[in-house]
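A reminder from the course coordinator: this example appears on the midterm review sheet, so study it carefully.

Given structure:
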């Protein structure tokens, strides 16, 4: 695998929509300053470019419609580097593998803090029974409810990459017991206060111990369908599943059955196999499910951080230094 070293000012850079937002004038100015002399080519969500793609060497890939990325790559014979504006790169990795010589980087770390704060919000809200309190308010019913303190709560984090480490660290700071699994049992030191149970083989132990099971792993062939009937059966009957990663990590039919049958307490779902979630999905109306529209990552600071990372990597590209966040396209992360 390449070490991520490239050296030259790119002739042209293609910019697709990122983070469901338009580029601000200051974003374009910063990109131009990071690669002086490069021609910037705007690309629509449908993959329509406002200029030639023949000499595009760098693609900032974000929010694209079905088939648009494939069409872009087919029309960009000089492409050398794709920077994904998301942390998940399952589609980009497959396409890059099919064409040798393309380096892929991603947005690892850009969304870690917002996602961790989202998870902390949900753990606190459910532990202190906020959904029930809101319902009582709607009914104008004065009924105090007993909650749980976080010192009595165990948060299980599946995956200790950038996002998982941030989730685990914040949960520990709030006083929860935190257990985790990661791809390999060995590896870099876990954040303080985190008990690493082991690698993938330790998932059953985590499921049995956790009040909240947080999925923070990338989508790969190994993790597709990670949570199925057996895993749901292994969870505590009052435990909650929290998915802030990819919808395909979860067997949604098995999850629905488990929720209806009382095999687990509930689910916080920010990612789904098909998005947007169909209005006909039963998850919308289940009393023990919190549905959010894949928004755990979204704050007013992530666009700035995304542009910061891309511009930093453009500077590395020009200087011939290894790029940050290089993706192993064979592994998919």
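Designed residues:
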């Amino acid at each position: 695998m390449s070490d991520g070293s490239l050296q030259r000012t790119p002739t042209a850079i293609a910019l697709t929509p990122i983070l469901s937002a338009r580029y601000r004038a200051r974003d374009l100015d910063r990109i131009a300053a990071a690669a002086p002399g490069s021609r910037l080519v705007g690309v629509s969500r449908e993959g329509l470019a406002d200029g030639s793609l023949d000499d595009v060497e760098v693609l900032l890939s974000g929010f694209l419609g079905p088939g648009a990325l494939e069409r872009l790559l087919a029309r960009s014979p000089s492409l050398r580097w794709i920077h994904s504006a998301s942390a998940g790169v399952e589609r980009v990795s497959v396409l890059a593998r099919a064409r040798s010589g393309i380096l892929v980087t991603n947005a690892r770390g850009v969304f870690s803090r917002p996602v961790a704060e989202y998870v902390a919000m949900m753990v606190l809200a459910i532990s202190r029974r906020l959904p029930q309190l809101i319902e009582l308010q709607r009914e104008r019913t004065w009924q105090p409810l007993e909650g749980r303190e976080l010192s009595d709560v165990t948060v299980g984090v599946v995956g200790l990459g950038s996002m998982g480490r941030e989730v685990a660290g914040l949960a520990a700071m709030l006083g929860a017991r935190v257990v985790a699994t990661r791809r390999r049992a060995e590896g870099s030191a876990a954040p303080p206060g985190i008990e690493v149970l082991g690698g993938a083989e330790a998932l059953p132990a985590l499921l049995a111990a956790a009040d909240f099971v947080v999925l923070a792993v990338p989508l790969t062939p190994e993790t597709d369908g990670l949570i199925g009937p057996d895993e749901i059966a292994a969870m505590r009957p009052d435990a909650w599943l929290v998915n802030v990663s990819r919808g395909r990590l979860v067997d949604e039919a098995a999850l629905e059955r488990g929720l209806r049958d009382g095999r687990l307490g509930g689910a916080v779902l920010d990612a789904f196999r098909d998005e947007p979630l169909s209005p006909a999905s039963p998850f919308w109306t289940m009393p023990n499910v919190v549905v959010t529209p894949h928004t755990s990552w979204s704050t007013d600071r992530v666009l700035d951080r995304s542009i910061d990372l891309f511009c930093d990597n453009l500077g590395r590209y020009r200087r011939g230094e290894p790029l940050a966040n290089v993706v192993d396209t064979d592994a998919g992360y």
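The chain has a mean pLDDT of 95. The longest helix spans residues 302-319.
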